[in-house]
Amino acid sequence: MKIIFITSKLNFLTAGGSILEFDLMYRTLLKWGYDIKVVTVFSYANKMPEPLPYKVVEENIMSRRLLGIQKGIFKILKKHENDADVFHIDGHLALYGAGLYRWLGGRVPVAAFFNRELICWPENVSKLLEQKQDNLFVTLKKKARWWTEHSVGMPLASQIDFMSFTNPVLQRRYEAFGLRTDGKVVIVGDPFDYRTLMRENGITEDSYRRRNKRAGVLKIFYSGRMAPGKGFDLLVTAFSLIKNKEKFELILGGDGPERALLQGKVKELGIAEYVSFPGWVEKQQVFDFYKQADIFVQARWRTEMTSITLLEAMSFGIPSILPGGGGLEWDAQGAALYFKDEDCADLARKIEQLGSDYDLRNELSRQCYVRLGEDEMNYEKKIRELATGLEYIIGKR
Question: Is 130 a residue whose pLDDT tops 70?
Fold first, then answer.
């Protein structure tokens, strides 16, 4: 089976966790004997410091507008259809161009992997930081795009032959927006090799429990791009409500457009002595922070989204505190405490609860490996399900 993956870019240096999960997917299928080719559509953003075992074809869509991007996707599919048994696209990026391709008689079946939101959905915001308000023109433009994607784009996207989602919350969100999945779906999670990460960092399933503290300052850690919607504002506000702050050290890793605002917020809240901002660091340094962290808190992310950052923390056995009811809870399940989404007071209570309960931290750490060991989180089993789906739609051609 010849599979051509259509993806945005391969930036292994500064991009997020999606690149690593895609790379794991490609390598796994290649190992199983599939013919893999990867086409990057924004190839000027590629950063591939080491040779890759699969073939990469660099295309360049120069447009940044919705119609221009989808037109470019359509052309790329037509250009490469003689070399493919099946196309596999990044769902949020290429769904309309791919749907149009199939609707107009494109002969190669298309599968789409959905691991994030559509741009037209409500934007990520940090409600506790200063926000720039849209003017009337921008507001109307966003409403028009939402209507266009909902009313025109979704019927086109529903022509895609097979779909995979990272979690069922995200699937339901797309379906509520109008995507017809018609029983052609598999939930694959985030392809993630936690055992290799543990081995490379000298972590065992009892590493955290052996270093768990009965006394002393507990380190709370969260790291990510400091951008709207990542929850840093919620976390620092919640921390300011904790009564026994001296029992904790809050480490906020990463960099981004909101870093200065967050540092100002920390000073305004009077908690600067408890909070550190190490900035952007190499990945291995992030792993070193995980080895020292006592509690991991991801205070916010889009409700429908999962998180590679959380899966990394779980691989190190760190008990977590997360917003309930969404993709993060689907990821962690019994390995975390959950607070009411966007409720700073409830988050503060959960930090105090976990910080004061040695046995609970041990149990949540143990549950990390219970969850990671389940079939739902087994990347090889889930990629096998994806491959079976691809073979099925090829057979229907």
Answer: yes
Beginning with the edge strand found earlier in the chain, give each strand of the sheet holding 86-90 in spatial order. Answer: 55-58, 35-40, 2-7, 86-90, 110-114, 162-165, 185-187
The gap between the terminal CA atoms of the chain, to the nearest Å, is 13
* Architecture (CATH level 2) of domain 194-375: 3-Layer(aba) Sandwich (3.40)
Q: Can you tell me whether residue 239 is helix, strand or coil?
A: helix
Q: Is the pLDDT of residue 131 over 80?
A: no
Tell me the percentage of the chain whose pLDDT exceeds 90.
93
Q: Are 6 and 84 in contact (CB under 8 A)?
A: no
Q: Are 120 and 142 in contact (CB under 8 A)?
A: yes
Residue range 196-234, pLDDT digits in tens:
999 999 999 999 999 999 999 999 999 999 999 999 999
| DSSP-assigned letters across all residues of 128-190 | TS--PPP-HHHHHHHHHHHHHIIIIIHHHHTT-SEEEESSHHHHHHHHHHT---TT-EEE---
Helix (H, G, I), strand (E, B) or coil at 255: coil
Q: How many CB atoms lie within 10 A of CB 343?
A: 15
CA distance 318 to 295: 6
Cα pseudo-dihedral 150, 153, 158, 163, rounded to 10: -90
Tell whether the model's pLDDT for residue 352 goes beyond 90: yes
CATH code, 2-187:
3.40.50.2000
